[in-house]
Structures are given as structure tokens and as C-alpha cells.
Specification:
Hypothetical protein af1432; alpha/beta; about 375 residues; binds fe (ii) ion; 5 strands; Rossmann fold; five-stranded parallel β-sheet
């Protein structure tokens, strides 16, 4: 299991207009908390509860009150080990040199021009806080950690009951989008094995495929997010299937299949009891094994009875299962996996198989699709 305690960056800014863009750029690589320089006059909650990975400042170093506040912030136990990175504003003459010296005097490890574009700033910050990772590594690792926490929050209610921690689930969605956008789908699909549990691996595979196809089809952002959230939660009912069936090396017998097929309804019911009201999430959990020709389960729905996004998720789900490696089965190559999807004929929406192929395969590998 990978490290899921991510820590955060504290951004101290007296320029809230710029702060938002800086926080957004840093936010794809790390959690960011933002505070003004008048720290001790504000309530920022308990900053010592999590690991502070670094402090970034965007304050006027020639303003004595700001520097005094910054020193106060840095005295906080949680900040003592965190490297300080300071953005310096362009000022005339020797004042620029003075500000550099003031930042160094407070302990700045690196100083950057405040005119640095936010993306470059984020790369410089990652270079300081995670010297062993590039910014793309960091974005992908963050995606794996956050979506892993989301799946953990979902599976927790399978055993413990109660309400699903939806904020944690939601916090796992955008990091998947960012990881696919910046690191690419192939890398994501190759990286989910850092989680050692098959349901984690599969949920993250389906979420990554869902993100790639939704982006490729230019879904509006909110629809991308809903689709990925539904993907993360689609198979939670498998948490109730005995492991000897779930991980059986070889074919399931009829009785075992009957048990396996219960996971869709079980998952749906756990979501309802856990407080999920989103129609797509509920529909996906219940109907992601329906087939257009009526041969699926649990309700043997046909054609129009299956909502479009659920049909698309079904295709992502089958593709994920085909390319997954298991101790008892080899992973199919993308070409072989699409061969199988196309051979399923009227069971699947062909245009959607094409859409997934466009998202997954490079053009030269797509053949006639
Ligand atoms: Fe399933
Ligand atoms: Fe699945």
C-alpha cells in the first residue's frame, strides 16, 4: 500500500487575488492551505494535525508586520521542519536586494520571483519538497493516494455500515483527472499496482479509464467528476463477496457465479444506506453488468433501459477486467482486449467501444475501430 499521508503546503499570502492562481497550480501536486500574513489574528484551525511539507510565502518583505507574522507562523511546531520558499516582488533599486536578505533572514531556502508563472512555481516547490519526484510523478502519486483513500472510505462502510465519507470520496476525483491529464492513461494503468488489494486496483483502473474516455468525449467538468465518482464506487458490493470466490483461480461454478452476481445489488443497497443520492452512482453500481441484448444482470435490462453513461462504464469495466493481471490469469494486451469487446457484438454499444479505443490506443494501434 502506498503512503497516503500526503501532508500539505502552507501558502502565506497577502495578495489574495494572486493567491488563488498559485494555490490552484500547487493544488494539482499537493494539498494546499492558504493563510493571510496576519496569522495570529485569524483562526486557521489546528495546523499541527498533519505534516506540513513546506511553506510558500507571497508577502511584502518590506512590510514589518508581515515579516513578524511570518516568523510567528514558522514558530508553530508543525512548520519547524518545513522548508520555506519565498516569492519576491520586483521592487526598485537596492530594495530588491534588501527583500532578498530579509527573506533569507527568516530562513527562506529558495527565493523565486513573484512573476514566476504558477506552473513553474509548482515545479520549483515540488523540487524542494519532494526532490526524488518530478512534478508529473507527484501529480500521479497524489492521484493514486487520494483515489486510494476514496476507495478505502467506500469499502469501510461495507464492513462497518454507517454513512459514506463523501468528502473523502470527492477528494479522490480531481486527482484522478489531473493524473491522467498530466501523466497519461498508460502510466496510470501501470501504476495502480502500488495498491495491493484487487478491489482497489480494479476501482482505480476503471476510474482512470472513465476519466480518459470522459475527457476524450469532452464531457463538461462536472460530468467528468460524476462519472469518475461513480467509477470509484461501482464495485463496492464486492467487499461482501467471499474472497475464495472473488479471487478464485479458475472458472467459477454456477453456485459461485450466483453469489458473485449479488455484488451489484448489494453495492447499490450499501450506497443507499450510506447516504448516496446521486442517480448515476446508484444506477452504475446496480446496472454495470447489464448487456444491451438483455443477457446481463441483475435485472436483464435491454437497450434503452440502460442509461448511456452506465453503458459506457460497463465497457470501461470489462476492459479493465481484461487488462488486469492476476496470479491466475495473464493480462490481455490492449489489442486483444478490444478484440474481445468488439466480438461481444450487440451486447455493447459499438460507438462507445470506439470511444474507449480512441482514448486508450494510439492512432496507429487503432486499426479499423
Ligand atoms: Fe462489478
Ligand atoms: Fe467492476
Amino acid at each position: 500500500m502506498i503512503e497516503t499521508k500526503e501532508g500539505y503546503i502552507l501558502l502565506v499570502t497577502d495578495r489574495l487575488d494572486r493567491g488563488e492562481a498559485v494555490a490552484e497550480a500547487l493544488g494539482i501536486a499537493m494539498d494546499v492551505r492558504v493563510t493571510g500574513p496576519d496569522f495570529y489574528n485569524q483562526d486557521h484551525g489546528d495546523l499541527s494535525g498533519d505534516v506540513c511539507k513546506g511553506v510558500v510565502t507571497d508577502i511584502a518583505f518590506n512590510r514589518e508586520a508581515s515579516v513578524k507574522s511570518l516568523r510567528q507562523i514558522l514558530r508553530n511546531k508543525a512548520m519547524r521542519e518545513a522548508p520555506l520558499m519565498s516569492m519576491l516582488r520586483k521592487v526598485d533599486g537596492s530594495e530588491g536586494e534588501n527583500n532578498f536578505m530579509r527573506a533569507k533572514a527568516v530562513g527562506a531556502k529558495i527565493c523565486l520571483s513573484a512573476a514566476t508563472p504558477p506552473r513553474k512555481l509548482a515545479a520549483a516547490v515540488v523540487n524542494t519538497t519532494h526532490p526524488d519526484q518530478s512534478i508529473v510523478d507527484r501529480i500521479v502519486n497524489r492521484g493514486l493516494a487520494k483515489s486510494g483513500l476514496a476507495v478505502g472510505a467506500i469499502l469501510k462502510v461495507v464492513d462497518a455500515g454507517g454513512a459514506i465519507d463523501l468528502p473523502t470520496v470527492d477528494a479522490g476525483v480531481d486527482p484522478v483527472i489531473n493524473a491522467i491529464r498530466h501523466g497519461g492513461l498508460a502510466r496510470w494503468l501501470d501504476s495502480v499496482w502500488v495498491h495491493d488489494d484487487t478491489t482497489y486496483q480494479h476501482s482505480l483502473q476503471v476510474a482512470g479509464l472513465a476519466a480518459a474516455v470522459a475527457m476524450n468525449l469532452h464531457f463538461p467538468k462536472a460530468d467528468q467528476q460524476r462519472f469518475i465518482r461513480a467509477a470509484l464506487m461501482h464495485d463496492l458490493g464486492k467487499g461482501r463477496i467471499p474472497l475464495k470466490i472473488l479471487n478464485k483461480p479458475g472458472k467459477l461454478d454456477d453456485g459461485e457465479w450466483a453469489v458473485m452476481r449479488t455484488h451489484a445489488k448489494i453495492g447499490h443497497d450499501i450506497l443507499v444506506r450510506g447516504g448516496v443520492t446521486d442517480e448515476l452512482t446508484l444506477n452504475t453500481a446496480l446496472h454495470h453488468h447489464e448487456m444491451l441484448d438483455g443477457t446481463g444482470y441483475p435485472d436483464r435490462l435491454r437497450g434503452d433501459g440502460i442509461a448511456d453513461p452506465v453503458r459506457l462504464m460497463t465497457i470501461c469495466d470489462i476492459y479493465a477486467a481484461l487488462i488486469e493481471k492476476r496470479p491466475y490469469k495473464d493480462a490481455k494486451s490492449p489489442e486483444d482486449a478490444f478484440g474481445i469487446l468488439y466480438s461481444m457484438g450487440d451486447k455493447l454499444e459499438r460507438s462507445m467501444v470506439n470511444a474507449l479505443a480512441r482514448a486508450v490506443l494510439k492512432p496507429e494501434e487503432r486499426g479499423a475501430a
